[in-house]
Each structure stands twice: as C-alpha cells, then as structure tokens.
Amino acid sequence: MRVFVTGATGFIGSAIVKELIGAGHSVLGLTRSDEGAKALEAAGAQVHRGTLQDLDSLRSGVAASDGVIHTAFIHDFSKFQENCETDRQAIAAMGAVLAGSNRPLIVTSGTGLGAYAPGEVAIETNVATSKTTHHPRVASEEAAAALTAQGINASIMRLPPSVHDKGDHGFVPILIGIAREKGLSAYVGDGQNRWPAVHRLDAAHLYRLALEKGISATYHAVGDAGIPTRQIAEVIGKHLNLPVVSVPAEEAPAHFGWFAGFFGSDVPASAQITQERTGWQPTHIGLIADLEQGHYFEG
C-alpha cells in the first residue's frame, strides 16, 4: 500500500513510517519543513508538503494514497480546544476524499475517552461523544464517527498518556522538568491513580496491523494498563536524587500548573479487544523499565 502519514516526522509518526516501510509499504509523509523533508527522505519515504490547517494539502495527499494514518496534532495546550477543532476539520477534509472507496483512515485519540467515569477501565467499545465527555479531544472521535456514518472506512487509535521511548518529549519529560524545577518529585494524594502507557514501537506496530486489517473499529494501543502515579514519581525521584512527596489534590494546580489535571487523573485502560481483533501483543519494555534505563534523565 501507499500510505499517507500525517505527523510523519513526529515521535510516533516517525516510528510508524519505519514500521510501514519495513513491512513493504511505501509512505507519503506530510511535513511543513525542510528539516522534516530531509528526515523523511532519509527514512525512505516520499515527501508531501503541507500543514494541518492547509486542507488542500491534506486532500491531495489522501488522493494520492491507498490509506491514511493521521497522527499529526498541534501540541499547544494553551489552545487545546482550538487545536482539537482544527483536528476535526482536518479529519473531515481527509475523509471526504475517501468517499466511495474502502481505503482506510486511522485517526488518533486518547484512551481516556474510552471510560465514562473516573477510575473506570477504558475499553474500545465505549463510544465517546460530547454527551459522554467534556474532553476536547472528543472532536477527533466525533469526526471519525461522522465519516463512518457516511460509509467511509474510518478507525480510531487511542493512545495512552505516555507513549515512551528515547526521544519522548511528552508527559513524562514534563513531569521530570517539574521535579527538577521544584526540587522534589511529587504525586497527587495517595498516588494510586493510574496511568496507562505503551512503548512507541509497539504503538507503531499496532497502527500497521490496524491499517492492514482495514476494518473500521476503535483500537487501544496499551502496554501497561495502569501504573500508579506514585510509582512513576518514585522512579523520577530516584534518578534525580530528589525527595518524593505527596501533594494534596487542592494544592496540585499550584505545584503542577496546567498539568495537574492530567497527572491527577485515574485513567486505566484495556487493550483486550484490540489484541483479540488484531493479534497484537506488546513486546517492548514497559514505562517503569524504560525510565530505569536512565535515558529520560540525560542532559
């Protein structure tokens, strides 16, 4: 297949590009920069210039491909809701090009949308809408559902809060940065609230399997179903040689800033249905073992 990959030079997208090419597919990768173009060419992919806001560039990329994996997202959390709506428009634009064909489109979301209440294990069959959640990322899932209702082969890949590996610049590095800044590694309350996680290479493998299956469905890329956040804070404290402390929930915003809501959430997730549907099994190390390797604390 010739696969159009958005976010192709990103942390997850670059792994997907390598996974697809390694399996014999060809890749058309979206990038907005010369640096990104060079990285794609070095990986053996073709370059497609454009951005998420340039809907014409997205449409032409889809038109030239046999399938689409959409991982691009604007990671500016000061404009999170606006960026989620940008994603909704991008998905709608790409999906429209696929009308009348069975070419697959996989969009990206978060596992937190698969639970209807805090602490409930997120599962693939739970449908997220603006009635079931106030999370802005529901825009992506609603866009995919609208396409499916039109007979378009759209699927949802839900990722956990931590997709980890060398080069991660997501939530765990944010925690490490806060710990360095504050001089302590903290967790909220008793720290028993859980975070799921997945290794980047396991996630990339699942994207490929889902693409090749070509069945409209929701998938969970989950390796660790739920790691107590206290355990994450303890490993960070050990490697930074900092005290590990509990922060009361009411003081969490003062300590963690905008990140308090994320790290204080109890959002375990299951991938059982995904594994049964695809045969996927995570084979790489979990988040705690990855942290113990030390590369997160270099530099």
What does this protein structure show overall?
With 299 residues, this protein is of the alpha/beta class. The protein has helices at residues 11-22, 34-43, 55-63, 80-97, 138-149, 171-182, 200-213, 229-240, 252-256, 260-263, 272-278, 287-292, and strands at residues 2-6, 26-31, 46-49, 67-70, 105-110, 154-159, 162-164, 185-188, 194-199, 218-220, 224-228, 244-247. It has a seven-stranded parallel β-sheet with strand order 3-2-1-4-5-6-10, with helices on both faces. Helix 6 crosses helix 8. The longest helix has 18 residues, at 80-97. The mean pLDDT is 96.
Query: What is the β-strand count?
Result: 12
H/E series, N to C?
A: EHEHEHEHEHEEHEEHEEHEHHHH
Radius of gyration: 19 Å
Characterize the largest beta sheet: strand count, sense, and whether it forms a barrel.
7 strands, parallel
- The portion of residues assigned to helices is 40-55%
Regarding quaternary structure, what we see is single chain
Low-confidence stretches: none
Question: Which strand order does the major sheet show?
Answer: 3-2-1-4-5-6-10
What's the average pLDDT? 96
Number of continuous helical runs = 12
**Global geometry:** globular
Strand content: 15-25%
Structural class: alpha/beta
- First-last Cα distance: 40 Å
